[in-house]
C-X-C chemokine receptor type 2 (Loxodonta africana), 358 residues
Amino acid sequence: MEEFNFDNLSLEDFFGDDSNYSYSTGIPSILSDSAPCRPESLEINKNVVITIYALVFLLSLLGNTLVMLVILYNRVSCSVTDVYLLNLAMADLLFALSLPIWAASKKNGWIFGTTLCKVVSLLKEVNFYSGILLLACISVDRYLAIVHATRTLIQKRHLVKFICLGIWGLSLILALPIVLFRKAIYPPYSSPVCYEDIGNNTANWRLVLRILPQTFGFILPLLVMVFCYGFTLRTLFEAHTGQKHKAMRIIFAVVLVFLLCWLPYNLVLVTDTLMRIGVIKETCERRNDIGWALDVTEILGFLHSCLNPLIYAFIGQKFRHGLLRILATHGLISKDFLAKDGRPSFVGSSSANTSTTL
């Protein structure tokens, strides 16, 4: 068995470093030609983190299951955007199923072995990448429907299914490097951790593992969304039609929440990358600050998996109506109550087939 080398480990090696970055173990990181970097009083209370994970798990499990149920129940009339949102709910639900394991690892260290380490790391990575890629596809769909009023591509359901399959495949590819190197590590005098074992050339490999996925899995999709929604907003404001503004509220809210949850995490990673390549001077204090920031922003990213159903519930009139209709069909609420709710109408694009039905 190859001997594991601890000589060049950094704080982020144990506090989290690439796409699954935050595994606080209390192990001091070591800078070359300097004393060990020891975390000061920046460690987040583990019980608070576990409580947050438990709440996110329950809300995500309930909310995303309801979203999938409503869309599938009305699948005959669902739009292209609904297909993307269905896949987004699937990604969030799959990730939520791994949250109890992450919570347990915060309490006891990583006691689940290498196989489960790879599986839950894969779920987290695929959730992130599929999320932003699906939102980029929705932005293109809205751009074509509203700015160009075109229906040729976006009306073909079978093409949308292939696009979604392609997104899942690309997400798996982007997540693959982390999964290949991720394993359970049992360092001396500390709790076991789940993180990347890259070998001696750690710094260079970690830069590659960061820059490539962040470029293709975050920066490029983000630029696509900025471009598409910029022109879409301009067209909506020029049209002066309240219905179109109303139909776009959900999509803008979903994108905004995604960015609020995941953008801070990625900005911290960019800062750490700049420090590693020497653009920012590396010090123990900065390493400690980045390790703490990764912990906090990772929790914010995890929180995202339960927020989309809340957006649909508070903003999406048709989602609420669809859910009430299912409850009325199964006798859980009165049909008179459903009638009072009324059936909403939507004008989200040039075609009813491409309207935002949630």
Observations:
- The chain has one domain: 45-354.
- Strands lie at 29-30, 36-37, 182-185, 193-196.
- Residues 1-35, 344-357 have pLDDT under 50 and may be disordered.
- The chain has twelve helices and four strands.
